[in-house]
Design brief:
Elements lengths: L13 E8 L5 E2 L12 E2 L1 E3 L1 E4 L3 E4 L2 E4 L7 E10 L2 E10 L2 E7 L6 E2 L14 E5 L2 E5 L6 E4 L4 E4 L10 E4 L10 E10 L14 E3 L12 E4 L8 E7 L6 E7 L5 E4 L6 E5 L11 E7 L4 E6 L3 E4 L14 E4 L7 E9 L5 E8 L5 E13 L2 E10 L13 E3 L2 E5 L4 E7 L5 E6 L5 H4 L11 E5 L2 E6 L8 E6 L5 E6 L5 E6 L5 E7 L2 E6 L7 E2 L2 E2 L2 E8 L7 E27 L4 E11 L31 E6 L4 E11 L5 E18 L5
Length: about 675
């Protein structure tokens, strides 16, 4: 039984209540227990968003955007060529991945080329450099779309060369021979380098290589490799670890004279793997400064091309570098970012366990050895960073990278100290219970996009597939809005060739666009969706123990449309949670002036809902009169039908708190 203080309930023990909730600048919060919640926060924002001066409104509807894919979408990207923007889709056509393009919502057109054949399940990504769009999907070797011919090009693997032969000049083989030298050769094409040949037989000479000359030298010869555009020679005294000497192209004969003048490159050993077919990339990035192409592989290597090319071999400055090779993190993301001092660098992310991981900066340094200028990557770990679990949900916004780490959402910022280092700031402290529900094993499927200063995430919440959209509003001090129960496999922005931006999602293999204009409110592709705006729980003193008599609750709605219901629930003096009142607003409307839907781009996310042909009130007030003594009070605004819209201008709660009546709960 609740305890009631024995003193009389005199007027001096009463406090007039007039509680105003007319802005919700803290957005959705789940970390605080009910009764400790800030009054300008919300406990539920299902299918709602914050607008204007931090008041809530049902989210925009979804409508079909353009022609729809005839096959299952297993990848998406974009391109721009000859001044025209378009979208690229990988579609599963009869068990084979094929690439199609679409412009401004028009028909899907097959990209030609032989072979246009990719894995039928792996999600494909695209990265454009000049007139090539590179294709990666974690399964197939690298290929690209040649935009000038609308064809798909696959790189063809070069054969491993046979062992070269080293022939020493007469001056090196006379007298006592105390030095053994070995050579290997690799073949290069436009994308990479073959595996190194077996080592040559030992070339036994009488002089250390540093003292060779033009007349005292070794001639290295090797056999032709079909398709090779150049060859790289490796040498040294240990056949298992030979270092790069020189790359040769446009050769009249397949031979080269080693006179010892070139210093061995200590940064590059003869490779054991073949990259001439193109590496199997899990993520790619093209640096907009110089069109340099970067890719990461599952074995923790970062590949880099020569600037302006797709050549990852040592020719023209390409190559690869391991990042935590053999370590406990998984390299999964690369992008152009900055150091804490603001210097532009290439930045990689590595996923670790339990929400950990690391960020690394890669810069390219030069070293001179003899007459050779060698370009090599330098790796520097960003202090105090966590890596992303979801490359597709890593969003660059406001000069920061924003991403889920598995146990949190992080944002890279700069710590102002002597060195100016990057730091990761936690963004999701107020929604920790929700973050804990994310399925870490499927979080790599998450996807993110930034639009109008909001960062949207499609996430797997207690599911193996994305099933909810959350967003963080950076213009509102990183306020969270949860949740939109939409199973978005992908999200993207598309600026059509008329200059209009479309916020699109892929749901059930349909391409849909968030929009207000030209759509029926609270419908997705014509199907009604429900909304709920809720607060839990109002209390009457700082400690949450006082009982109160609530006379009236007022819910002011601006521009209400459709059927909107307000409900209130409270904990009574007997410790029972009960429905304490209901009121509803209803008006039937139909829209005019819209006409037949088209894809001209005139219907944009964030537009007004359009004109209505009936005269509806510009404002309405719902009134609930709760009964009995209450310790706390919850309220909600819900819609269940099509055509609902409103702005939640204010909730006003009036009554009397009895300071001498203390709630004790069930005993």
């Amino acid at each position: 039984m609740p305890y009631i203080a024995p003193q009389s309930n005199k007027k001096r023990n009463r406090k007039i209540l007039n509680i105003h909730q007319n802005e919700f600048s803290k957005g959705y919060i789940s970390t605080f227990e009910n009764s400790r919640r800030p009054r300008n926060s919300l406990s539920d924002m299902t299918n709602m968003e914050l607008v204007q001066d931090n008041i809530a409104r049902p989210r925009p509807s979804l409508v079909l955007y353009g022609d729809q894919p005839a096959y299952t979408v297993i990848g998406r990207g974009r391109f721009r060529y000859n001044g025209q923007r378009g979208l690229l889709f990988m579609l599963n056509v009869g068990g084979t991945g094929k690439i199609y393009k679409q412009i401004d919502g028009g028909e899907f057109t097959l990209i030609g080329g032989v072979p246009n054949s990719f894995d039928d399940e792996a999600w494909a990504g695209f990265a454009q450099s000049k007139n090539k769009v590179y294709i990666y999907n974690s399964v197939d070797n690298l290929g690209y779309i040649d935009l000038s011919t609308d064809t798909v090009v696959d790189y063809t693997a070069l054969a491993t060369p046979s062992a070269p032969t080293g022939t020493a000049a007469a001056g090196l083989i006379s007298g006592t021979k105390n030095f053994n030298y070995y050579y290997k050769v690799t073949a290069n094409n436009a994308v990479g380098e073959s595996a190194a040949s077996p080592a040559s037989t030992a070339v036994n000479v009488n002089t250390d290589r540093d003292n060779w000359s033009v007349t005292n030298s070794v001639t290295v010869t090797w056999s032709l490799v079909a398709g090779a555009t150049s060859y790289t020679i490796y040498g040294g005294t240990v056949p298992e670890h030979l270092n790069e000497i020189i790359t040769l192209s446009n050769l009249a004969t397949l031979s080269w004279v080693d006179d010892g003048a070139l210093t061995l490159n200590p940064f590059k050993e003869a490779p054991a793997s073949n990259s001439t077919q193109g590496a199997v990339f899990t993520w790619m990035y093209v640096d907009k400064r110089n069109s340099q192409v970067f890719g990461v592989t599952a074995d923790n290597k970062l590949y880099y091309s020569a600037p302006g090319t797709g050549d990852f071999s040592s020719l023209n400055g390409g190559g690869s570098v391991p990042v935590d090779e053999g370590g406990d993190t998984i390299l999964n993301f690369v992008d152009g970012f900055r150091t804490g001092k603001g210097d532009p660098v290439i930045t990689t992310s590595s996923r670790g366990a339990a929400g950990k991981g690391s960020l690394n900066h890669i810069t390219f340094e030069t070293a001179t050895y003899g007459d050779q200028i060698i370009v090599y990557p330098n790796i520097l770990e960003a202090n105090g960073q966590s890596g992303t679990y979801a490359p597709r949900a890593t969003v660059k916004a406001r000069d920061s990278l924003i991403y889920p780490t598995g146990d949190n959402f992080k944002s890279t910022g700069t710590s102002q100290n002597i060195m100016n280092i990057l730091t990761t700031n936690t963004l999701s402290t107020l929604i920790t219970p929700d973050v804990d529900k994310l399925t870490l094993g499927s979080l790599d499927k998450a996807v993110g996009v930034e639009y109008q200063d909001k960062v949207y995430f499609a996430l797997p919440v207690g599911s193996t597939e994305n099933n909810e959209i959350w967003y963080i509003d950076m213009s509102r001090k990183n306020t969270w809005v949860l949740r939109w129960p939409l199973a978005a496999k992908d999200m993207w922005l598309y600026e059509d060739n008329a200059g209009y931006t479309h916020f699109c999602v892929l749901i059930d293999n349909q391409i849909l666009e968030f929009t207000r204009k030209g759509s029926t409110p609270t419908t997705d592709n014509g199907v009604p969706f429900s909304t709920r705006l809720a607060f839990s729980s109002l209390v009457w003193d700082d400690d949450g123990v006082t009982l109160a008599s609530i006379r009236n609750m007022y819910f002011k709605l601006i521009n209400p449309r459709g059927l909107i219901q307000a409900n209130a629930y409270g904990i009574t003096k007997g410790g029972i949670s009960a429905n304490t009142g209901t009121d509803s607003y209803s008006v039937e409307v139909s829209f005019t002036g819209i006409g037949e839907w088209d894809y001209s781009g005139d219907y944009m996310y964030g537009d007004d809902i359009g004109d209505v042909e009936t005269y509806a009130r510009s404002a309405a007030v719902l009134v609930i009169k709760p009964k009995g003594l209450l310790n706390q009070l919850d309220w909600e605004l819900v819609t269940e039908t099509a055509g609902c819209d409103y702005l939640s201008s204010a909730v006003n709660t009036r009554g009397v708190a009895h300071d001498d009546l203390i709630y004790r709960g069930n005993t």
